Every structure is written in C-alpha cells, then in structure tokens.
User: Fold this.
Amino acid sequence: MWISFLLYGTCLSIFIWLIQHKNINILIRFILFSLLLSLVSFFYFLFSNRFLGPESWYNTSPYIEIIYFALMILGMSARYITNAIEVRREKNKKLKNKKNNPKIALEFDWYEFSYPFFFSIITFGMLLKQIETEVLTISNVVISFQNGFFWQTVLKKEIK
Assistant:
C-alpha cells in the first residue's frame, strides 16, 4: 500500500515540476506528460484489485471502449505518417534527376496531424456500431485500427 502512495507522490511531484518549468520545449513537455499519464495508469492497474474475479479487466466497460478508441487514434496517426512518407517519396523522385540529389525530410504539420481527431467521436460511434460483441478479440482490434486508418472513407460512407 505504501509503495502505491510513494509512486503516486513521485508522479505528482514530476507533474508539478513540469508545470513550473515553462522553459522546457512544448513538445518535450507533451511527451513527458504523456509518459507520466501512462505511468500513472499503469500504477493504477497494478495496485488496484481489478484483477480478481472471473472476467478480465480489459473485457469490461469502459476499458474495452478506451482500448478501441486508443487503437482508432493510433490508426489515424499512422495514416498521417504514411501520407507524409508518400509525399516525401514523390518529392524525392522529382529531385532524383538533379546533380546533388538532396533528400527531403518528412513534413510534419500539427494542424494536419490533429485534423482527424476532430472527427474521432463520429468515427468512434460508427466503430461501436460495427462491433457487436463486447469481448476484446483480434478482429475487433484490427477493425478499430482500420477505422482509424481509413477514417476519411468511413466518414464519407456514413454521410451518404
């Protein structure tokens, strides 16, 4: 019991330290906040009594929905990165005939990256409509990621 208090106290101290130090780059602060949130979630599941009983914790609500939503968001992020790679590949092909053959870096735009997240609730509603079972299966995990990856197609299909 005292270990959980110690770990939560350490996480709270790091959180307060991150808030006070505004001179740290915003991207680094965001990554540290994300890692801290993941660590707190891990400690919560590690030290709670959610593992007792016949049913697995990940097959109960709201955890199953959180897993589906996270996988859908991961699919949306993967789609943005693959699009950036495809754009980079096309630019490199155009510059391949040049003498010095410069390599183009991936272009990352936070606004374009966050654009699919505005539609995530709509896409998530359609995902829950597709998934009829309340058990976490491999096919449901793949469908969750796939709905995120092809969010534009899913959204256009639902609007028609």
Remarks:
- The mean pLDDT is 80.
- The two ends are 54 Å apart (CA to CA).
- DSSP finds seven helices and no strands in the chain.
